[in-house]
Structure formats: structure tokens, C-alpha cells
Amino acid sequence: MSNFSELKTTKQLISESVKLSDILPLYKNYLAHSPHEGLLEHTELTAKYLDAIVAVNKLDIVIDRLINGIIPQQELSIKNWVKKLFVESIVFHDLGKVNVNYQVIKLNNTGFNVNDDKIKTNHSLLGAYLFLVHNFEFILEEYQDKEKFLLLYGFCSLFCFSISNHHNSEYDIDFSKNKFKSYIEEFIKYVDVFIFNAPEKFKKDIFCSFDISLKQSANYISKKNGNGFHLWCLLKLQYSLLTASDYYATNHYKSSRKSIYTEDEFGIITNELSDYLIDNFNSTKEYNQKLVSDYESYLSIPMSDLQVISNDNLLILRQKLGAELIEGIKNNLSNRVFYIEAPTGGGKTNLSMLAVTKLLECKRDEITKIFYVFPFTTLITQTHTALKETFALSDKDIIQLHSKAGFHTKNESNSVDNESYDNDKQNYIDYLFINYPICLLSHIKFFDIIKSNDKDINYILYRLANSVVIIDELQSYSPSEWDKLKYFISNYAETFNIRFIIMSATLPKIHGIDVGTDAQFEPLIRDVQSRYLQNPNFKDRIAFDFSLIDKYTNISVKELAYQVILKSSEYAQKHGSVHTIIEFIYKKSTTEFFEEIQDNQLFPLKNIVVLSGTILEPRRKEIIGFLKDSNNRSENILLITTQVVEAGVDIDMDLGFKNISLLDNDEQLAGRINRNAKKEKCCLYLFKKDMPFRIYKNDFRYNFSKSLYDNPQKRQQILESKDFKLLYDLVLDYINDNNKLEFTKNFKDYISYIDNLQYDKVNEEFKLINNDSVSFFVPLNIKLKLDEDGKSPFFSTVDIEFLEK
pTM higher than 0.85, yes or no? Predict the structure, then answer.
């Protein structure tokens, strides 16, 4: 894009901006916060934090890209004016605190008297009005040209909404509600408090037709640009920076800080940390050390030499995947969206860490944060452990955000009351703003940041800029949202300079969905299907058995128990022991099977464990630990579970039984069996008991999976060849065909919400999970097992401290 790098920096615009003391003669009389912080001091602190946040997160180029995307053909002076308005709307967001009612009632300022204005103590609406009046005089003076005036007036009006919303729980632009009209007489009185030169008529008429003129201006701006995302996102980013800068500035005053936050306190990947991550990845694991030091030798190994199933060949294939990924990164540094498609058991977590380190090596001046995004908390906790071990990270470097993680702390409290309070407050702010270089979070949380208009979520939008974002297990997201996923990933990658890495063993290639963007989704490993997924070490580690599907239309629990006992007994007799897993769609069936299998005296598996979505987190960790413990390898174990184990749970079973659901889900469970290719005769038996309609009725894959399962040759071809493109092509074609329809609700409607700045609709109409859930407290006695250092493998330090209290 031309010209955007020439725009003035935020620092320049702050330094050139008019000072509050220049436009508010009696500025010393006004407070911003009680008891003693003046409005001038708060305005200056807000400017300093805006400058710091923009600088450490490298946001100038992001703001410039968005502005240039909205008005690409305008001259540089106009773009600088827009950026000036953007910056000053944040710095001067509290002009409305000159409201005397606010000063007296909210801040106990005895220098003023209360009046009976309808505006009462509201300062946000008044602030928006004063900001607009203040800038109107300059715009009018600089630009007599109607087109340019309308453009800048439109931006100025739109930027007012962040000011008027900055104490609301949500950001909203509603052209139909003219809240300003009814307060105009009260507003006008405060203009004379300032040194403004706006025409008298303008002061009164400015909001009389505000809803009409604002919508006209917004439409005018939108029509200047074919992609409404840029304007929608610029205003969302403005709201993020305004509320964040205000929050930091307020806390700075109330906590008696002596200095502005440092780069380290903001949780940025510094050059030192970048080197530390790269060095540790290259040295903590021997296989990584070998890979990065001699990756070209792995590239040279012919695939024909790796066709025999063995653990040695599997390890070489994993190294070869890593070597090809290194080549893929080096050859595609200009790209921002990547696929990592790797077979189940191919070591995707390690591949993602390798990709991160290579991007840090090649693009260290751009990358400031790393985010891992997961659909399941089990994946978050597993990956958190892997990252901490491989990169040798402390709790100051990494955080996991999900409902079961507990409160994360950077700073320990101490015995001095004031300092303890400051540390606790600091920990809260670090948690609220994710001030950690590396963050692992749920897909719900991440995509809420991207699309939500909720104030508390939108605080941290700016944190996404110049980051690496790894999105794992994309196939677990509903296909009804894949077009929106592609749209946001493509646009945020371009404007926020985010490197997205999308990975899965059964990866839907969502770049095939037409959403009006031309972003390039680059596979980092070429021809995975033919070269790796078809390799016997991945394809033939287990066999799929369809006999129970063909024989039983709806198998009974009794018959299923018999089959599990029979197959498990045969395997245990041949191999000494057996670890069997059986997965159901519904928890009710899990319970029924558990009761049936317990009553069967012939059952050889004395260790029966149940794992479902309602199992408490410490118990879940205990079960996974029990299954992975090498001391239990000689034990016969049966794991009865729901679909919580499908994607990424790091267990290694011998036999599996699964109620069919979606074809790619069936492959995910297969990935929990014979993961390291060390065993023989491992098998996954598929059966029909419960129909998955209730869970998957809104998933486009359901009918396609059902039709493919009704075709024995097709289902066998897909599961045994791992060619999920056969399924996903049907789904992608359906999405594209549906989005072309004129008289049905589809992606065009969603784009219209963005184009028309309907922030509530953009948020509401993009849901990765449609069902509501409720958290509740379950009082149970749990044995707390601690090691010699007083630590628990199942509870965090914070959990233990809470339980002790």
C-alpha cells in the first residue's frame, strides 16, 4: 500500500497536539479522579500510555494500514488529519469531566456547585460533543472543499462514539438513536468553558440532524473503500486503545507508580527473550538439536526408505516433517497465513514451536507476542506443559487463559500492606491485558477479542498486532462459521501483521471459501497427503474395523460389552496386556456401558476409568497421568469416555471402539491408538449406537459423513487413506453455493453488518459454540497428593493456596 509508511507517528501527533492547558483556561480547577489528580495530569498520563502502548506493540503501521485501506486515494495531508483525530480522540476523551455535577457529586470537588441539568453527572456524551466542536473549527478552516470536509467530519463524528461509550459495557454505533439532541442546551453551556472558535450556529445545530449527517458521512467513507473491514476495525482499535490507555493512566495515579510501564511489564517479546526461546528450543530436546543443526540431511532422505513400520522410521519422518517446515518458512517469509498439516502422531506441537522459532529468527523486528488458540482445555494444559519444558519458561513469560486455569500471577505479594495491594492490582492488570509474551487461550476467548464489542474483551484487541497466532484443530469449529473464520484471519493477517499458523491432522482448507479476500494460505509442508498421510507409519499404525457397523444397525450395550471383552481379551493374551478405549457420543451411554461392564464377571480389565466433560480437572489430570505412567503398561485398562479425548489428548492406547459421528472425528480418536508405532495388531472398531443428529444437526459435515458412511467403499477409502479432502470439498462447495444465494441469510448479510458498523450484530452472529453453559460449585473431598517439594501434579500453586485457606 502506498503512502501509509509516511504518516506521522503517534508520538509526533501527541507532541504536535494542542495542550489541554491551551484550550481550558481554568484547567487547574478541574479534577479527573478524586482526591487530587487534575484533569490535565490525567490527560497527559493518557497520552503517555497511548504513546507507550503504540510504541511497544508497533501499532503505528497497523493504524496507518487501516487508514490507508479506507481512503487509499486521498493525499497524505488528509490521512494525517484522520490519524490526528484518531489520536486526539483518545488523549482528550475526558473533556466532558468539566461537567460541574460530575466534579461535585463524583469527585467531591468543592470548587463548583451542583445544577439541575438533565445531563446529571454524565461526562462521556458531553466529552464527545466538545471533541467534535473543538475539531470542527480546524476542519472548517483547513478544508473548504465539500468532499474533504465531509470526509473529515465523518471521521470526527465516528471517533466520538468511542468517547461516548468509554464507560459503557459495550461499544455501539446506533445511527437511529440521537442521544445528543435532548441534551443540546446543557452541552452548549460548556463550550464557553473552553477556547473554541466554532460558529454559534454550529454549536446548537451540530446534533440536531446528527443521526442523518453521521450516517451520510459514514456511508461516504465506506463507499470510498471496497472492504468495510478497515473502517470497522479502525474504530474497534480506537476503542481498544482509548479504554486501555485510560485504564493504565487511572491505575498509574491510584497505585502511585513512579514510571510508565516498560516493554517487559507490557509482556513483549524482547530481543533477549527471542534469543532465549530460540536457544532453548535448539538445545533442550536432543531431537530438536539434531534437526536444526542438520535439517538438510533429513530433507535428503528418500521417502521410499521410510516405508517399513517402525518406531525408528516414525522418528525420522517426524524430523523430516520439521525439516520441510523450516524450508517452508524460509521460502514464504512474505506470507502471513500458513497451514501445518501433519498426520496424527506427527508431532504438531513440536512443529508449531519450530515454526515460531524460525519466524522469530527471520522476523524478530516484527513479532512481539505469541498466541496459541485451542478448542479444548485439555490441549491448552498439555501444550502449556510442553512449551514451558521446551522453552524453559517461567510464569512471567507464559499464561494459560481458560475457565479451569485459575488466576495467574506474575508478582508475589509481600507483607507490606501497600506494596501487597499494588502487587495484587498489578497481577490483575497483567491478567486483564494479557501482559505475557506467550499466551494459550480458548478459541472462544480469542475470536471474541477479534469480533466482540464487549469493553472488557476489546481492551486487548491491540495486543494481537505483530503476533504469531497458532490455531489448532480447526476441524473442531462448526463449518457454518468457516467463512467468517477465513474472513477475519485474512483481514487481520494483512492489517495487524499477524502470522497465523493453522494446523490439524484432518485440516479443512478454508482458503477455498470465497469471502472477497485474496489472502494467500501457504502450506508449510508440501504434498502431505501423498507423502506422509499415505506412509504406512501413519496410515497403517492401526486398522479400521467396520464389521460392527455392517452387522448391527443399532448395537445394544450388552452386545457392545461382549465385543469389547472379546477383542480386549484376545489382544491381552497375545501381548501380555491391553489398554482399550471406548468412546460414546452421549454421557448417558457412557454411564450405561460402565454399569454393564462392571457387572460382567468375564471382564479382564480390572482398571476401569471414566473420562467425560463433567469430570473435574484434577481428576482428569490424574486419569491422564495414570494412563501415561509406564509403570502401568503391564496393567489391563479400559477407558470409557465421551468425545473429550478426540483431539490432542496425549494418550497411547492399543484398541479402540467408537460410536461413529463425523468422519474427521473418527480419525481424531484413531490418533489416540498406537501413537508411536511400537505395537502390532492395533485396531479401531466403529459401531452405531447413538445417532449424532442432536449434536451435529447444524454441522454441514453431518449429512455428508452420514452419506459417506452409508457407502462402505467411500468411508473405507477416506479413513484408511486419510484423504479428508473428499469430505471437505463437499462441505466447502456447499458453503460457497449457499453464500451465492440471493434470498437466504448467508455471509453477505454478515458482511453488511461490518459495512454498516453494526458491532452488536457482528458479535452476535459469529458463534463458535451455540449452546449456553453454567458453572457451579461442587463440594467434594479430594485427596491432595504433594511431592517432596510440596507441589501437586493436579493443582496449581494458586489452587493449593486457595484450598489451604
Answer: yes
